[in-house]
Amino acid sequence: MRRRAFLAGLAGVAAVSLTGCARSPGPEPGVVRYQGATGDVTFPELAADMGLLEGVALHWIGNTTSGPQDIQAAVTGDTDVGGAFNGAILQLAAAGAPITAVIGYYGTDTRTFGGYYVRADSPVRTVRDLIGRTVAVNTLGGHYEAVLRMHLTRQGLTPAEVDSVQLVVVPPVAAEQSLRSGQLDVAVLNDMYRDRALARGGIRAVFTDVEFLGPFTAGSYVMRDEFLAREPDTARAFVAGTARAVAWAQQQPREEVVARFRDIIARRDRNEDTTAIEYFTSTGIAGRGGVIRPEEFGTWTSWLERDGRLEPGRVDPTRLYTNRFNPYAATPPDAAGAAPVAAPPAGRGGEEPS
């Protein structure tokens, strides 16, 4: 595969396609416009349901198709917040996008992770065996492309060998079949898709992201700098409420979190399949309440510079994010869980406007 610019297409953010929604209204004071995810509950949605947003209203304008698309929508002003892999945020900021990450929202740990899977009889055993192979990923320029390329590089592969690994975009729902049918050599599988595939047998992991990098917060929500300057109180209430929802999900038994998600999806009545949330195991977020750690941007900055994809010194990773709105930022790590968030009965929080 020819060497491809990482996230080429994010630099020229223009029109953004929003799925399954009405035309986005203009910004309104005290309102945060956002995209959701089909069959899933975002942490801002959980915060709204728990009544944690302190008067801030969420306005759902549809569902996102990917992390890169979600932050593009925030940059162009179609939404006020968007979430993506931190490496994608870094690249977009390097291209001049006026955005700041405000809270971590997904990550990887020993219960929530993604793996690079092959058929049981595959000759691929090590990362070096991936040279010249095809790999199914859910999107280009995202988490799994970056983890793969970093791992290949750290194993000593040359740039030409790294670029010989061909990435093919395949929807997660089709990745397992593409692997089993022999259309592709490797498929990235996570969450429900991983667990279902492993239950059927006949596949094995070459490596997983958590085995390679350990537990880490992988993605953050961003807001436009203009929004943060114009609506600081709205931003603070949004982030603080979302942080408390994250902390609640980090503290509660899995069954309680899943039950809450299931109830939220049923009440919002969008004709969604709730199968995916039954496979929820953890938030995967490393910092209590989504507090962003320096290495969660620094790791990707250093790698992109070494890989020749980012001019050294062009981006200061400490200026890409802020924890100033997060109430857990000043909490010592050993006391972070000392004040559990009390959850009100389902449906008692702020309802989203239609």
Automatic annotation (TrEMBL):
InterPro entries: SsuA/THI5. It comes from the Bacteria. Belongs to the bacterial solute-binding protein SsuA/TauA family. Residues 327-346 have a biased composition (Low complexity). Its main location: periplasm. Keywords: Signal. Residues 1-22 form the signal peptide. GO terms for cellular component: periplasmic space. Residues 325-354 are annotated as: Disordered. It is found in: Periplasm. Residues 68-255 form the SsuA/THI5-like domain. This is ABC-type nitrate/sulfonate/bicarbonate transport system, substrate-binding protein.
